[in-house]
Amino acid sequence: MPVNDDVPTDHDRRDDDKWNVVLDDDFVNSATVKEGTAPVRKRVWPRNAALAVVAAAAAFLVLRHTGSSPDEAAASGPSASAPESTTSAPAPSAVAAAPAAARPMIPLAEAFPAQVEDSAGGTFTKLGAVVMGSCTEPDSVGTTLAAYIAEGKGCVGEEIALYKDAHGNQFNLAIFTMKDPQDTVKLVTRLTMAFDDYQVAAQAPPPGSGLPTLPADSGMVQSFTGQGRAMVVGLGQWSDGRSRDYQQLVDRLTPLLKKVTENTARYENAAPAPK
Question: Mean pLDDT across the stretch 104-117?
Fold first, then answer.
């Protein structure tokens, strides 16, 4: 694996070509974008501290249940495993049978495990998770993503979580649950194509976590998946915020994103409880 992959290789360009396809529900079920470059020019808005404030109020419970701390977010959930390949989720037909707009989003604890195994025998540890006040909180999403969401048929809600690995690297997860699965297709498609634009904010670590709040211009990778109504976004940053070794960072993020995606797919494709 190259020590520094700041400059995309011919192989990287070939990988990008595979996204130039006709997009439909099947695409959004399995689309995962792993960015090999992380330009910081467009990511100029400040880090979101909302989760850090929430985590501070619940710091005792978070640390008691997880016993760990990361770099950029706040999360909550159980445990998991993580292979390398992208999860291929079932089609959203089961969800379509129910009134999707009326169905709540996945519970925090079900979406975000307390611990998740990485691909090297280590563990991701959740530091906290929270439900945001809306899907378009100014400190949580960029103006472009907010506009995309406003164009659709509505958003049920946004949930975010923060994890760290054994080396103190920070991993943010966000789940946007739309009322219409077709809006999820559009969101994943648009954000995938604008791979160098960061529209989902990284979260500041909770007080007492021992992790630094990284500068806004720190290197970052981002990946997207879609499951039924839900778009899952994964962000990864090195513990020191360095802007290099991006493919290695993508590889570290993948198992965690895969687990959260699997949990979301299971929920989205489950038959709704009878009334």
Answer: 97
C-alpha pair distances (Å), 29 with each of 93, 138, 252, 255, 262: 11, 28, 22, 17, 11
Residue pLDDT, tens place only, 220-271? 999 999 999 999 999 999 999 999 999 999 999 999 999 999 999 999 998 6
Distance set, CA 66 to CA 102, 123, 129, 162 (Å): 32, 12, 12, 12
Q: Which residue has the higher pLDDT, 258 or 29?
A: 258
Residue pair 131/75 in contact by the 8 Å Cβ criterion = no
Taking a C-beta distance cutoff of 8 angstroms, is the pair 190, 147 a contact? no
Q: Amino acid identity of 119?
A: S
pLDDT score of 78 more than 60: no
102: which DSSP letter? G
Residue 170 has pLDDT above 70, yes or no: yes
For residues 204 and 222, give the distance between their C-alpha atoms in angstroms, rounded to a whole number.
17
Q: pLDDT band for 8, please (50, 70, 90 cuts).
A: very low
Query: Given strand 230-237, what is the order of strands in its sheet?
Result: 79-80, 115-117, 123-131, 155-164, 170-178, 230-237, 221-227
**Within 13 A of 270's CA, how many CA atoms are on the CB side?**
13
CB 38 within 8 A of CB 246: yes
The model's pTM: 0.69
The candidate with the shortest Cα–Cα distance to 212, out of 71, 41, 28, 80, is: 71
CA dist list (Å): 240 to 45, 52, 100, 135, 274: 19, 19, 41, 29, 49
The DSSP bridge partners found for residue 236 are: 171, 221
Q: How many CB atoms lie within 10 A of CB 153?
A: 11
